[in-house]
Write a structure and sequence with these properties.
The structure holds two protein chains of two kinds. Chain A is mostly helical. Helices cover about 70% and strands about 0% of the residues of chain A. Chain A has a domain of about 190 residues: MetI-like fold. In chain B, helix 5 crosses helix 16 and helix 6 runs antiparallel to helix 12. The chains are: A mainly alpha, B mainly alpha.
């Protein structure tokens, strides 16, 4: 302990530096929050402000007044995230576990088989044609879920963590007569909680934040996930008014809280994951140990 | 482990062995390990279907795709698709943009992330957690959301930055029409979103270093700076190499959302923001030219692959330990 606390001044400088950089990371987003709570007319006059002149929740009320499209997108995003994360988590963990087992001779060639995909890929067009013309899962939720089920980088992260499980533990379970599946579910999963938690968050985040698969494969209005809806709004402000009109409310376009409503939707889309992620913090450092460093 | 069982299997199979000497070892291995292999099967299936099958689709680059005939039935056209792509003005532009921008991203982000990790390492765990949360936070925003953030900053009339510029008496800039600013904007955005993640990986790498090295060094009177230079950095190098190597292998690929949403797909900015991925996407979805899109994609994959091999070879020459294969 004594060794680590010699130069006090430099430590304060480091703190100061990180405080500044932390603000740099947070303030731009605070602007978005602030705009969403501002009055439209204030924005027209003063531009975007860090602290709203008049705080109002009008943009949110406005969005929630006719929430059909919004709620629908929310449901799509939630369904895809929950199903996708569960599926991806279990399949990734199992595969990573097998690759991490040093006593299994097949793990080396299998690892190469999996990680080779980090180096070479077929690219966008063949994948697109595979999903659209061969699997015929475009315009279904499967096209939003399947492409992300196995991500080699996640397998690598998980493998790194699982390599630390002592082989003796598995050997002794085997002697007690446990099969491989039982060992995985009863021993490996429970002792890998930090890694599982980290992986869950990363996978959930990928599903929640995805718009790319929707951009490629989704035409059906009822299957538009939140992020993709957000993109459309950004792309075309008119979309907001048309999608709101389908909620049977006639709107005077000039009354529409244009700028503020946009930002409000951005907040709603970013929302859930931002609330969840601080709670996972404690697992990150443990869970992210890239034990696979040495290949 | 299970030696007895192995022996009996061996004896039983000895007679059959003569005929299928080679295969039996392989299949026997599979049967003996069927429990563990069955755990891997769902994952391997997804890898095969979503990563390996598309590789076969690369033949499309040499074909004129006709959906009624299917991929295999379509006519071969040799290198025509490549010729179209490489003789277009776009080829040079998107290649240059992809390489230059990604090179900037990799160097800037890694240098900042390693520096920050080293600095964080000097602080208490509590402080680390606080800064880590703040710096990691943008990583969890989608690119669509980030594009709203940049829009809030760059909007020409209402935007924060133009307001600041006007405050200092300068003229506002029409950011979405001035291509020369975008390499810096994109680099900053990339750093903003990704530095927390990279920093954390390097920080965990530092945590993994044996504490006794530092204690021994301190007893020998090594200063903080000396400790960083002769313990932290050398021991972190394999991790840095691995990550940079993987990133260089991907240097021909781009984070699509960054290039598609932040410039708002503004044609005025293509000269500095259009990359191979956005080009391929447009060729596929807007112009519907699957042949050329696949050709550009194949070019991307092959050059990317050669890059990894090259970089790995170089690293191997310098220090065998740091290479990935």
């Amino acid at each position: 302990m004594d060794i680590r606390r010699k130069p006090v001044l430099s430590k304060w400088l480091i703190h100061l530096w990180f405080i500044v950089f932390s603000l740099f990371c947070i303030i731009p987003f605070l602007y978005v929050i602030s705009i969403s709570f501002s009055k439209e007319s204030d924005i027209a006059i003063y531009g975007y402000q860090l602290i709203p002149r008049t705080i109002t929740t009008f943009a949110y009320e406005y969005l929630l007044e006719s929430p059909k499209a919004l709620i629908n997108s929310y449901l799509v995003s939630i369904t895809v995230t929950v199903l996708g994360t569960a599926l991806s988590l279990i399949i990734t963990a199992k595969l990573a576990y097998v690759l991490s087992r040093k006593d299994f001779h097949g793990s080396k060639p299998m690892s190469f088989f999996v990680f080779f995909t980090l180096l070479f890929s077929g690219g966008l067009v063949p994948s697109y044609i595979l999903i659209k013309n061969y699997m015929h899962i475009d315009d279904t939720m499967l096209s939003l879920i399947f492409p992300y089920v196995i991500m080699p980088w996640h397998v690598l992260l998980m493998k790194g963590f699982l390599s630390d499980i002592p082989l003796a533990l598995i050997e002794s379970a085997k002697i007690d007569g446990a099969g491989e599946w039982k060992i995985f579910y009863r021993i490996v999963l429970p002792i890998s909680k930090p890694a599982i938690a980290t992986l869950t968050l990363f996978i959930a985040f990928i599903y929640w934040n995805d718009w790319y698969m929707a951009l490629l494969y989704i035409d059906n209005q009822n299957l538009v996930p939140l992020q993709f809806m957000l993109y459309r709004i950004m792309n075309n402000i008119q979309f907001l008014s048309t999608s709101l009109q389908t909620g049977n409310i006639s709107i005077d376009l000039s009354q529409m809280p244009n700028e503020t409503a946009r930002m409000a939707i951005a907040i709603l889309a970013a929302g859930p994951i931002l609330f969840v992620f601080p709670f996972f913090q404690k697992y990150f450092v443990k869970g992210l140990t890239v034990g696979a460093v040495k290949g | 482990m299970g030696n007895m069982a192995d022996h009996s299997v061996l004896n039983m199979e000895n007679s059959i062995r003569i005929n299928k000497k080679k295969n039996s070892g392989f299949w026997r291995g599979i049967i003996r390990n069927k429990g563990i292999i069955s755990l891997a099967i769902p994952g391997l299936l997804f890898v095969i279907v979503f990563y390996y099958l598309p590789m076969f689709g690369l033949v499309l680059a040499f074909k004129d795709l006709n959906f009624t005939k299917g991929i295999w039935g379509s006519d071969w056209v040799g290198f025509t698709n490549f010729k179209f792509f490489f003789t277009s003005d776009a080829a040079l532009q998107v290649t240059r943009n992809t390489l230059v921008l990604n090179f900037c991203f990799i160097t800037i982000t890694n240098i900042v992330a390693v520096t920050f990790a080293l600095l964080l390492f000097e602080l208490s765990r509590k402080a680390v957690k606080l800064y880590q949360t703040a710096i990691f936070f943008p990583y969890f925003l989608s690119w669509v959301t980030v594009s709203y953030v940049t829009y809030a900053l760059l909007n020409p009339e209402l935007g924060v930055i133009n307001h600041l510029l006007e405050l200092f008496g300068w003229e506002g800039i029409s950011w979405y029409f001035e291509s020369k600013y975008w390499p810096s904007i994109l680099s900053l955005a990339f750093l903003w979103k990704n530095v927390g993640y990279s920093m954390l990986i390097y920080y965990t790498g530092l945590l993994a270093i044996d504490k006794t090295f530092y204690e021994a060094a301190a007893i020998d009177g090594a200063s903080k700076w000396q400790q960083i230079r002769s313990i932290s950095i050398p021991l972190l190098t394999p991790l840095i190499t691995l990550i940079v190597l993987l990133q260089i292998g991907r240097i021909f690929y781009s984070d699509f959302g960054l290039f598609y949403f932040l410039p708002a797909d503004s044609g005025a900015l293509y000269s500095t923001t259009d990359v191979i991925d956005t080009y391929v996407f447009r060729a596929l979805r807007v112009t519907g030219d699957t042949g050329m899109a696949t050709a550009a994609g194949l070019y991307q994959s092959v050059v990317g692959f050669l890059l990894v091999l090259t970089v790995n070879f170089i690293v191997r020459k310098i220090n065998k330990e740091n290479a990935i294969f």
